[in-house]
Every structure is written in C-alpha cells, then in structure tokens.
C-alpha cells in the first residue's frame, strides 16, 4: 500500500505536537486511539440551588498541558471520566488522563488543579454521587470570581479568597456512555 508523503508529514506533526508531559505519547511516540463511545458523556456539575454557579461544569483552564486550574464553566473540557483508587481521571483527548488534585495551601481553601500524575486516595467519587475529599471529609467547594469561568477550591474550613465566592457541592452525573458496538 502506498501513502502520499503528506500523510507521513501529518503523522510526524501530530506526534511532535503531543504534550511533553504525556508519558505514553513520549514512550511510544505513536498515536493513541481511545475507545469510541456513544451516548451522553458524564460530567461534574455544581449543584447548589440559588447560586450563580449551579449547573456549571468542572473543566480544565488549560487543556493543552498539565497543571491547569480546575474551573467551573458553561462548557466542559472533560471527556470520559474514570474513578479508581480514590482518583478522578478525565480523558480530554490524550492517552493519559488528567487527574484532579488538591493543591497545598496554609488556608482552609485548597486550589484544585489537573495533572498527569496519579495520586491515590484523594477523592470519594463515582457516577451519580456528590464528590468528597477523603483527607478532610469535605464535600464543600468554593467557586470564586465575578463571572464564569470561576476558579475552584476545596473548602476545609472558613477562610475564603479575596473577592466573590459561592459555596457549592459537585456531583458526577450518571454515566450515559456505552462502548461503541456494545448493547
């Protein structure tokens, strides 16, 4: 079979454009073809009635690299979700997922970020369930900012960042995805 040289140029550009922090892409330098799903992808949504953030989706402020802040937005950048060993893993088009992490802070509000590094036993989370941090037992989050996208923090006490913040809970929707070709 013969392929035009432009096909190989496109493949080389795709491999070269893979994020440096994506371990599997760097290890094999190939293309990852994730499973194909049909149906409605699950999402993580703010659910506290009477707040401006109700119904907004948890997303990543920077889907091109690890370390993006967790935000609440009108759109979700999260693809397929997985929960294993206390992690929340979001696949956003990469072979390796982003994991939702709790950052360090001497305040009672802890920044949330997405990272390629898996850390076990962070979250108690599953489909159709309110998310809770395992270490603090907290299921309260702060969504801070004047308009969407709002920056997300785990709330473990009473401190709040400067500016406007809404207290909310986050819930994972039911999983409406099915592996293509299955019943």
Overview of this protein structure:
The model is unreliable at 1-29 (pLDDT under 50). The chain is built from two helices and 16 strands. With 183 residues, the chain is mostly beta strands. The chain has helices spanning 5-16, 23-28, and strands at residues 37-40, 44-46, 57-60, 70-73, 80-84, 87-91, 98-102, 109-115, 123-124, 129-130, 132-133, 141-144, 150-155, 165-168, 170-172, 176-179. 26% of the residues are buried. 10% of the residues lie in helices and 35% in strands. Strands 3, 4, 5, 6, 7, 8, 12, 13 and 14 form a nine-stranded antiparallel beta sheet that branches. It has a three-stranded antiparallel beta sheet with strand order 2-15-10, with no helix packed on it. A two-stranded antiparallel ribbon has the order 1-16.
Helix/strand layout:
Blueprint: H1 5-16, H2 23-28, E1 37-40, E2 44-46, E3 57-60, E4 70-73, E5 80-84, E6 87-91, E7 98-102, E8 109-115, E9 123-124, E10 129-130, E11 132-133, E12 141-144, E13 150-155, E14 165-168, E15 170-172, E16 176-179
Antiparallel strand pairs: 1-16, 2-15, 3-4, 4-13, 5-6, 6-7, 7-8, 8-13, 9-11, 10-15, 12-13, 12-14
Looking at the structure, what is the overall shape?
Answer: globular
**Sheet of most strands:** 9 strands, antiparallel
Write the element-wise H/E pattern from the N-terminal end onward.
HHEEEEEEEEEEEEEEEE
Structural class: mainly beta
* Beta-strand share of residues: 25-35%
E-strand count:
16
Low-confidence segments: 1-29
- Radius of gyration (Å): 18 Å
Work out the helicity level. under 10%
What is the terminal separation in angstroms? 35 Å
The overall pLDDT average reads: 79
Annotation field: number of helices: 2
């Amino acid at each position: 079979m013969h392929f035009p040289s432009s096909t190989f140029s496109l493949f080389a550009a795709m491999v070269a454009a893979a994020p440096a922090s994506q371990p599997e892409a760097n290890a094999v330098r190939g293309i990852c073809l994730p499973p194909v799903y049909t149906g409605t992808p699950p999402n993580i949504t703010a659910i506290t009635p009477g707040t401006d953030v109700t119904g907004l989706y948890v997303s990543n402020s920077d889907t091109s690299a690890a370390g993006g802040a967790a935000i609440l937005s009108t759109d979700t950048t999260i693809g397929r979700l997985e929960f294993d060993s206390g992690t929340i893993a979001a696949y956003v088009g990469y072979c390796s997922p982003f994991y939702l992490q709790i950052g360090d802070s001497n305040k009672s509000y802890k920044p949330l970020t997405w990272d390629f590094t898996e850390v076990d036993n962070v979250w108690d989370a599953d489909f159709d369930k309110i998310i809770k941090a395992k270490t603090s037992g907290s299921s309260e989050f702060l969504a801070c900012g004047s308009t969407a996208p709002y920056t997300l923090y785990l709330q473990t006490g009473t401190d709040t960042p400067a500016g406007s913040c809404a207290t909310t809970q986050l819930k994972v929707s039911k999983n409406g995805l099915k592996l293509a070709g299955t019943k």
